[in-house]
Amino acid sequence: MMANSNMKVRTSDLELKDRLVSIQRVTKVTKGGRTFSFSAIVVVGNENGVVGYGLGKASEVQAAIAKGVEDAKKNLVKIPVINGTIPHKQEFRFGGSEVMIRPAAPGTGIIAGGAMRAVLESLGVKNVLAKSKGSSNPHNLVKATVGALCELRDAASVARLRGISMNQVFNG
Question: Residue 1 — pLDDT band, cuts 50, 70, 90?
Fold first, then answer.
């Protein structure tokens, strides 16, 4: 995960739902021939501001998914969600993937594709505009999306950080 001000979350008191983002068959070439296995990237979240992603690798699909879910549960972060959307616009780049997420008015829905949609749905965001530029590699896209979400800050945390009141954040 990215280093940020968002706190890590304990999994014991959460009802997490997992979403499979991508599964790929990978090959290892050995002296005896090719060995096939599976790589799965999974996103978990409680649909109420907590999200995490994980990567699992195994010789069977179900085992790879299970390992991905376990890895994702170890990497949960709390993200500020205000009235079903995010607090402000954010851009983030990871590898060749670049993402831009913006808050949206109620009724807009999740305007995002593929891997970004899985992360945003797991987070519990209902209205957001999102755009991915550059690489559409699901691994980098998930990491870029979570990275952008981790950099979000709500007004209360900004006021605390600056040592001022909430009114001064908006008016001053």
Answer: very low
Tokens of 99: 């993402």
The Cα 61–Cα 127 span in angstroms is 33
Which tokens in the block code for residue 151? 């950099």
Residue 154: phi and psi, rounded to 5, are: -90, 170
Evaluate whether 134 touches 98 at the Cβ level (below 8 Å): yes
Check if the beta carbon of residue 104 is closer than 8 Å to that of residue 127: yes
| Contact partners, residue 72, CB within 8 Å, separation at least 6 | 18, 42, 43, 44, 52, 53, 54
* Closest CA relative to residue 149, chosen from 54, 71, 106, 85: 85
Residue 112: phi, psi to the nearest 5? -160, 160
Helix pair 114-123, 138-150: axis angle to 10 deg: 40
How many other C-beta atoms lie within 10 A of the C-beta of residue 149? Answer: 26
What's the pTM? 0.86
